[in-house]
Structure formats: structure tokens, C-alpha cells
Batch of 4 targets.
Target 1
Amino acid sequence: MTPRCHIVPPYLLRKLSQSEDPEISARARRTLRSDTRFRSDRLGAEAGLGAPALQSTSPAAARQLWDARGTERLPGTLIRRGDDPATGDPAADEAWDGFGATWRLLFEAFGRNSIDGSGMTLDGTVHYGRGYDNAFWDGERMVFGDGDGEIFGRFTASLEVIGHELAHGVTELTAGLIYSGQPGALNEHMSDVLGVLVKQRTLGLRAEESDWLVGADLLLPGVAGVALRNMLHPGTAYDDPRLGADPQPAHFSDFVLTRDDNGGVHINSGIPNRAFALAALAVGGDAWSGVGQVWFDVLTGEGIRARTDFRGFARLTVAAARARFGPDSAHAEAIADAWRTVGIAPIVQAPSASDAPDAPDVPAAAEADLLLRRTGGLLDW
């Protein structure tokens, strides 16, 4: 079964569920119950279910949008597709525009026609649940909650969140990175990368002009934080009594081994996130046409595997940069330097005495998974 890939990690919701405010606590508990149900919810009772998919082979995004109307029944009622006009509902129209922006990044920057490369319809559901504090990709569609109105606003308001969740579909259909341990953190990392690139390209921002924030439009006034994650400075996105402190590490020496969050997929993604942001800033200009293109080459290339770990991914990015921009390119040098800065040695050629890794001995993905199982087991997907 495809795991639900959520933008808000479980450890953050559990913190909110302990709030002294009964409304915040109740909404967080409801969100956690929904997120851990692990079912498809394809009940088929809502009007519009079964409408044929729109498959696009021309340069235009095929989109369909549904409204759950405060329930947790998917997909909901069909409210917009094809050439239908805007609905006037802010959440619905934001989701529609975000789908289009994500499709344009994939098609115009990377030459990929939608998630699957063959014009797959981008399906989404808005107004999921009551006070639902999350958004997720379930293997078929994007689903957006409206937030609790105190900590989180509506999840369609963040363009990079929309790009992030749709990117999980791209990863699922290309590299297939398993959703646990280091591969899972790379899965989340790729979604953060593509989500931020959607925002940068849509707003016309160069790497040096970007805030490198993921979910910058989610946190409401009064919350001590700026976003869910800060790619350039992991661990600094928030520090709020209700949310706790951002736990993301910025260096491999601080890699977190945990049973929570599918082995820390939302936590340890901070390490490759920082490497990407540093490399993009070093190269400068449009990140999607430089370092972003390299990352996309790796994601859709033949070298990556479902259990690729951080060091393997780093090695692939340097090799991909050399293949695309030349063996002595500034891109390859900037990418290698960025990985070293976060404590990972991207050894591209056969190891030698001078290639001794400068990263700590963190268990590889399979070993980490085994260790976690021996200490209680990973959370079910």
C-alpha cells in the first residue's frame, strides 16, 4: 500500500495534542487519528465519484478538484475540471492554481508531462475533515485540510506545500524511495526541493532571493515560527510552546535515530535540504535550471534505488552534475562542497586513502531499519 505522505509530521501533531487549549488539543487528536487510519477512504458515496480521468498529451495541465465538505470521505464532490471557471472558494482556487504551477515546473523546466510523464490527471480534494491540520498525497490524489484556525491556516495557501505533496507522486513513480530511514528522508527532501522550486519559478525568484522556507504561509499570527521547515537553516523554522522546537539537524553528525516519523523522515531531511540550498546559492541564478535540474536527473535516472542512502544520493548528484554540465563544471564542485559542508563525502570514484569519509558512522538505511525494529519497530506505513 502506498503510504500517506503528510506535510505536517506526527511528532508535531502529538505536541499540539498535549495543548492546554482543549480546541487545539482536540483538533490535533482528530488529525492524528485520521493520519494513522491508513486506509484509502474510497467509499464511492459522494456525488461525482467515478468521473473519468482527464489524460493530457498536450502542454496543458489536466486537473480535477473535489470537495470533501468537512468529511473524511474521498474523493468528495466534483467541483471543477477541464475548462471550468474558478469556483470563488479560496481553497479550491488555490489548489487549482498550485496544481497548474507544479505541472508547469515539471513540463517546462524538466520536460516531464505531469507526475507520471504521460499526462496523468492531477486530482485533489479540499475541505477534508473538520479542523484537519495537514495535507497529504495518498498515491492517487492531493488532500488538503483547512487547519485549526489558530495554529495552522488552510493548507492550500502554501504553494510549496502543493508542490511538495505532488512531488511525492513523482518520486513514487520514478525512484520509489522507501518511506523510512535515510531513503524516506530523501523522499521528503525531494518533495521539499520540488515544492520550493515551484514557488521560486512561479514567483520568478533566483536562488539568492528565495527564503528557502517550506510552509511559510501555514503558521498563523501568534505562532513563534516562520514555517514548517527552513531548508537553508534546518532547526530554525519554529520554537513555539505549543509546537515545540524545530528538531531538524543541519549536519550528518546530528543524524537522529528514532522509531518516530517512519525513522525520522521529516527530521533528517534537513541534512540534504541544507546541501541543496547551499549548492543552489553557490551556483546562483535560477535554481530549477541548475542544481534543481541535477537533482531531477538523479530522481528520474537509472542509478538511484529504493534504498539509496544519503551518501549514495550525494555521489549520484555529483556524477549527474558532471554529466550534464561537464566534469570540471562549477555545478559539480558546488554540489560536492555543499555535501561536505553537511558532513557527507560524495565519493564518486573508487575509494582511496585520500577519500576517507568525513561523515560519522551512521547506520545505512537497511541497518538503521533493522536497529529500529529491534528496539520496537518502525511505525506502520
Note: Residues 181-374 form a domain with the Neutral Protease; domain 2 fold (CATH 1.10.390.10).
Target 2
Amino acid sequence: MAIVQQKTVENDEAGMRLDRWFKTHFPGLGFGHLQKLLRSGQIRIDGGRAKADTRILAGQSIRIPPLAVDEKSNKPLTQNTIKSQGDHDVLKQMLIYEDPKVYVFNKPAGLAVQGGSGLTRHVDGMLEAWRNKKGEKPRLVHRLDRDTSGVLVVARTRGAAQFLTKAFRERDTKKTYWALVKGLPRKKEDKISTWLVKDQTPDGDKMRVCEHGEPDSDHAISYYKILEKAGSGLTWLEMEPYTGRTHQLRVHAHYIGHPIIGDPKYFEADQNWEFPGGLQNKLHLHARRIRIPNPSGGMLDVTAPLSPHMQQSWNLLGFDMSEIDE
């Protein structure tokens, strides 16, 4: 017997358009079919009629009539689910692409890629659970900061690791990040070119912009362009690191006067600035997409869904992602 469902809107879905909510939960449901169900009143919010562009609120109940498509079941990983599950299961939930030579994961914010002081769990250690029949452990070929979410490429074989490491070293790769920054940059797009040096601080390593020629400094180049703005207070940037220095995008955003929202190291707010209501005070930086030669042939081109806290912010600010990833 066909069943009518009632689903409750989650906190990180607040502000999302109703049609986007259905696309996320029921990707097989066509827009025309959705419109027909809305017009006939079969889909309702808290018992009332709704439209495709209705913004939903946390805690609301959505009536879902019997549909001929399956519901998408993979919910985003949270810190609680990471803590409660074994390494194999967490990696399986993070996985967004695989072939015989490569894994691509959507790393959650807060999960370290490698071990460090006080860290008991990290991606490198978790990969022990995925050793193959030959005993080979998948190998890291690049890094993401602990608080940065998004695309993480892992080699399944030694040969693939050598191939991918060479591609990163020779910059045959294109990495696209999304960031939410304070204020509105003067230029719609620009190149940022500086020298960076690492300082030891009580809070760990911190990068700073320095003069050319300072000992142990490295040249760093980043590109950005504005995708959308929320008034003059917040801006959604697409950022691309040409070089791969530690904290590069974070320190470059700070350098141009528009630090990334929620950055614990590089965000310095003035006294008159208040953190936007409804947004979580977490780093708003996400490795959205990577394009890199695939060891199996052709190009690897993978996009990672936003982390829950950034999705919540995008919903609240009304940012539309539907036409961006072209």
C-alpha cells in the first residue's frame, strides 16, 4: 500500500527553497512532476499549500505523497556520527568517487587529514581499515586543513600515488574552493600574489605575509572571483590556489581585508562587527571541486557537496548554487 510520509525539516535545511529540498532528498523526482504535486495540494508544509520557491523553516513538517522515486539516504557526516562509527563505515560515508586506482572523499570539517599533537583520529589512520588484498594501504597525495571540508583525493596503489603526486607538483590540477568572507571585495575578481612565512605561536603554526627574501619564505599565488553577495556584509567567493602553501587561502583572504567567516586563526573582527545571526561560528571554507589527470586515463573531475554548517549558511543567505558548477 502506498504511504504518505511526513518529514521534519532539519536545522541545517532552514531557509532552503522547497524545490531544492526535494532535489536533495528525492533527486529522481522531476521538476514538472513536483510542480503538479504542489498545484494539486498533495505536497503541503504544516498542513498548508506551498510553492516551489517557498523557503522552509527548521521544524516544519513536509507532507510527501507516494512517489515513484527512492529517497536519497546518505545524510552528511556529523562529528557525533564520526565518533560513534568505525573507520571503515566513516570512510564509506565520506566516499564520493572510486575507480581501481583512486578514492575521492568529501572530508567533513573538523576531521584532521593527518596525525598531530592530541589527535587520536584522522583520515590517514582510518585508511588502515581499507588495505587491499596485497596489504597496500591507500595513500594521501594532498592535504586539507582540519577545519576545511571537501574534496580529498587518495591513491589506491603506489603507482597511482606517484602519478597524482607528480600532477600536484607540476600543477596539472585545478582546485576550486568556496568561501564566505567578511565584507565585499572591491574587485569582482583578482590575483593575490605574496610571500608567506610560517611563525610558531602558542596556538600552533600561523602563516603571515612577509617581504620577498625573508628566510624560509615561499611565494604564494591565489585567484578569486565573487559569486554572490549578501548586502555588503558577506560575500561568497570562489577561490583557486595556484600554489599549495599552508593556510594559503585563509591568509590571502585576510591579507585583502576580507577574512573567511569563522576562521579561528585569521579572522580579526573590529569592535563594531557582530557575527551574523543564524550562522555557525565555524570555518566557512570548502574544497568544492577538483580536476586532475586520472591515473586510469582521462581527467578526474569531482564535486563535493557543502558541509552541513555551510549549507545552513547558504540557505539562510539565499545563495543559489544551481548554476554555479558549470
Note: The CA atoms of residues 193 and 221 lie 5 Å apart.
Target 3
Amino acid sequence: MKYASKKNIAILGGGQLGRMLIQAAISYDVNFYVLDNDENCPCRDLCHYFEKGSLMDYETVYRFGQKAEIISIEIEHVNTAALEKLEQEGKCVIPNSKVIRTIQDKGLQKIFYQHHEIPSTDFVLTDSLEEVRKNQSFLPAFQKLRTLGYDGRGVQALNESNIEMAFTAPSLLEKTADIDKEISVIVVKNDSGETAEFPVVECIYNEQYNLVDYLISPAKITAEQETRAKQIALRVVEKLDSPGIFAIELFLTKAGDILVNETAPRTHNSGHQSIEGNLNSQFDLQIKALLNLPLGSTAITVPSLMLNIIGAKGFSGKVVYKNLTEIMQMENTYIHLYGKKETKPGRKMGHVTLLGKDREELITKAEKIKSILSVESE
């Protein structure tokens, strides 16, 4: 395995995931080119070259991809036809266009799990309100838009009493599971076929915004459940058959079953604690996968908790972080702001990672931070 410099890496998307990748890769001999439709995106001032443009436009993505040897994503909502054309011309696209096309459509995702006998919740595909009504006996269920849903948007709980609120666009109805815990496994694969999986983390959700409130590493599960979760996650990546980094979100049911919820073909919110809490972070392994380098250890160094910093309800506009300096004075506390200039309710503006001796200490500290820190606007 050789390391060839210098590499130009094109990233579709300029959000916080791309920003943290660039931060992790600063010691490598690479240039980052970033495409995003927001000229004030978090990557704007860190990348070597920035271009404003639509990630969904064929010509824009195709022309941008020609600038680099390696092309990757930090959001799955991109034009896969352009990526496929670039692959045909010999460009290295990680993950490959087929994988992105499958994952960006939640209906195709579910069909993929079903085809490969990967345990997941039962589902029904719908294209209209009338089709939802015809499947009323399937409720209660979660309805998810098949495409363009993100960070809790495009997802809603449906039952017989609110069926008229159903999305009319192509969607899937996903049977409600009897969930004990929501957990996640991040798996990385390089082009040589080497894989590495991170220890299972446990996710606690903010019900108001349907996104992660905080996560704890390691998850409070049995050794058998840990092994099973990793086996399922590795099977997902094996069947996707592409290098890259993949976050497999899972349900642990009260009956003890482990089911795949969704897969993200990129770094993920459920891996942010790895920056301080593991020997290598998800971003360290992402850059190694892109360059086809040995991956390295994912072992936990100390128990950790990642708390999302999100925009407070009732505030929109130029961001102001209230009481942030008080958080800075706490020991074993690491603040990551994403460089977003504008806040709005529920928007991810950063995260805080806490290190501690055990789960109880971490949760107590997280609740204290939540009571102090507020993301407001001028």
C-alpha cells in the first residue's frame, strides 16, 4: 500500500461534517475542494477551493468532480447520475454512486435490507394520501419521505387519528417498533477491503425536533448485543460493497431484537464523541478510507457523552451563544462550534463532548450544561 501525494479531494457539501473532516486531515498532504449552495457554509474558510453551486444539478456536480482525483460527500442529497459518469471516466468516487443512490431513497434502503435479509422493521411504500388511507390497518407507523428528509425533517408519526396529515409525496410507512434503546455503529472500509467498526453508542433523542439530544459511549448493552449489532452493521457494509464510512442506526427492541433503522453513507452525528473519546475519530478513519490507508484502532479511551448544541425555540437570526464561557470552565469538556452564522430553532450549531469515569457522571454533567447553555439570536 503506497501513499501518493498530493491528493485533491472534492467534497459535495460544505456543512459541519466536511469542516470536521478538513480539521482531522490537516496533517495529511491533501487539498480539499468543496461544493455547496451556501457561500457562508462551515467549510467555506477552511477548504483550499470553494465553489458555490447546486449539489443536485448534473452539470455542476460533473464539472466540479473533474477538478479532483477523489470525490466524496458529506450529505447524500447529491446528483448520482453525475457521479456515475465520473466513475465511468475513471474518477474515484467514495462511496460509489450506486450506494448513494440506494441510501438517498429511504424506500430503496428498505428494499435493500429486505433483499439481503438484514433485519429491519416492516414497511409499506406509498405515493399518495389515498394509498396511506388504504394501509390504515398498518398504523401506527412512522411515515418518512423517500427523499430529501434530513435531521428529523420529513418524518412524522401517523395513527388513525391524524391520518389526514400524511405526506402526499412518495413515502414509506415504517411499522412502529417496541424500542428499548436506539443505538448506532459506524463502520469504515478502505479500497483494500480492510474494515473497522466503532464500539456501539447509545442515542437519546430530542422528541421535539426528532434528532439526537445526546449520545453515550459505550452503550449500556450486553456483550452479546454489542457483538450482534456489529455483525449486522458489518453485513450492511458488506452488501453495499463500497469503500467509505457508514453510520448504521439500529433499534434494540424490548424483546432483545436488533433491527436496522437507517444507514448514512458518511460520517454521522452519532460518531462525534470519537474525536476525544476514541483512539482515532470517525474523521481520522474517513480520510484514511479516502486515501486507502491502514485504518487504525477505534477503541474507546474513556467513557464519553456528545451533547448537540441546537438553536433555541423562538430565536432566528445572527447567532449568540449564551453562557458559553461557563461551559468552557468545566473540566473534561470540549466545545465544537460549526461556524454557522445564522441560528434557527432546532438547527445543529455545534456539540459538546464530555469525558468522565462513568455514565451517571456524564449524564449529570450534560443536564447541567443543558440548563446553562442557550443558542439565541441578536
Note: Residues 122-175 form a domain with the Dna Ligase; domain 1 fold (CATH 3.30.1490.20).
Target 4
Amino acid sequence: MQTMRFSAIASDMERKIRAGVFGDKMPTTPELAAMYHCGKCTVTNALRALENSGLLYMESRRGGLLIDRSKLRSGKIGLVSRWPGASKAKVSSRFESLLEVIRQDGFEPVWVHHDSVLDSISDIQHLHSGFDGLIFTNSTLNEEIVLDLESKHIPFISCNRLPFNRRLNFIGFNLFDPLSQLVDMLVARGYEKIAFLIPGRVEGFNSMARKNWLKLKKSRNLAILPCDRLLLNWRDSRDVQLSKFLEFCRKESIEPDALILWSELPSEVFSQVSEVFNIPQQTLLLGLDRLYNPQMPGCVTLKTPEPNSLIVLAYEALRELIYAPSQKIIKRFVEMPQNWICGEIPYRK
């Protein structure tokens, strides 16, 4: 069993206190250490965090720690997204189980519509209007918001990492480990000219992705294509970034053996890509499975972690920041699903 951080233990203790598991008095430190499979020092740090919040107090040295349920927290948790109006209602139903957990924890979940690409300092003031914590989904966080929330001491966590902020608490998945595996499979099947596109909506992400992709190709002695060096504007929508990438490839007459498109593949996207790269006769297309149309020939689909799995883990991490803040940065990665490459990659003719 993986050892829990003291912050995670403090968060779990608060949840058990709220549920009445401990009654009016906390178990002893040795009992808690056995319960959480950790050392006494870790338990002591977790208990101290709850003491600092007033939830636990010591009546006497021999009496142990008592529980003051009047100090259980309540308030609002903001779920920041780009989903406005009707789409927000649709997304809320998708995350209903998480929203119910938040309510059981004493908080009111509130969806907050926000687009970091368009914001200014005056636009982000609503993000610290009475919130006890914030979760930033689908690339809604940028450096201005980070600095603003840190100055207000409001706990928050991102479902993406900001490449230029090493102190950011985030939940994500490591793209380039599975990408390396995918490239090796392609090379083993005879593909030599491989192109890659991931339309990023986080400041600095496209630059980071480009550098890592070039590094990966050089490590495999693969030819560098002109599109490998193309830097797209993160402020553009994913559709605009895709269009600019395709137009560049058309002008440069780039003809890859395989194109890894780390983006959804609705039929209109497939049509645009097919026009430029002549799929499947010339190029093998590998794209994400969401909105995938099984009628698309010459396409291998890739599965990524479900977005709600990121947000569920982000909420648990946010509870740790609320109940037991520490100097250690939360950096956690979601594993890719098993059999994330759907179907067999054909050998290059």
C-alpha cells in the first residue's frame, strides 16, 4: 500500500469526523498510525493541521484530542471551465457523482465560466468571491490568475500544468511517455516520416510540446519535418491551430507516413486532414477516440484518461490544500488506460 501524505490523511480524517466515524474523541496516535499504515510523525502532522483549524482541541494531556464539530467547514468550491450556458448543464449531469461528494463534504459546488485566453485582471476578480477553493479544468488557468489567487491565499489546483510555473499544484497525465511508446511502435512497423500535432490552449504548452517532440525524434534518429518546428499560438482555438497546421503542411508539401493528431476526430476534422494528407493511401492517421466516427478509413484511435477522472483527483488534492496546506507541491499524474491504442497499427507498405 502506498504511504499517504499527512495532508491526505488530514483530509480523510476530516471526512471521517463529518461522517461520525470517530465519535467525540479522536483515536490515539498509534491507533491512527495503524489505521493509515504510516508513521506516528505523519499522523501527528495531520492532527496538528486539524488542531490549527480548531476542529480538534486538547482538553488535557491525558484526555487526548476532542472534536469540535461546530468548526467543520462549509462554503463554496468553484469548478472553473469554459462551458457556458446549456453546455454547462450537460457537463454538470456528467459530473453529478462528484458534485454530490462535494455537497456531502459540506461545500456547495459552483460552476464558473471563464476563458483564460480572453481575460484581464478585472475579469478574474469573480474567481475569489467567497470561494474556499477552486479547481481549474480544461486549460482555464494562466499566470495572472495564479498570482492573483496566491496573493489572496485561496487554495486552488489545476487540471493542467503551466510550463512556466514550477510551483503549481496540478493533476495531469504525462503525454510524452505514451507518445514515445507509440513512436517506437510506428518505427517498428516501417514508419519513418512521422508528424505530430497537439493543439494546446495553455500559455507555453505549445512551445514545451514542440521541444519535447523534437527531442523524442532526435533520440530515435527520425527525420525532422518542417512542421515539427511550427509554433502555434495558444490563444487560437483548437480548430484555428489545426487549420494553420494543415495550411503550413499544404504549402510546404509535407507528406508524412503517419500523423499523430492528439485531438478529437469528428467527421469534419477527419475530412480536413484527409484532404491534405491523402488518408489512408499516403498517411496513417492516429487521433483521439472522442467523437470518433468508425466510418473513417485508415485511422487508428487513441484513448486518453477521462476528463472526469482528472477532476475527481483534483478535488481530493484540493481538500488537502484546504485542510493541511504544506510547502510540498502536488504533482500527480493519471495513468493512461490499458490498451489505449485501439486496434492494430498496420505495417508500412
Note: The first strand starts at residue 56 and ends at 60.
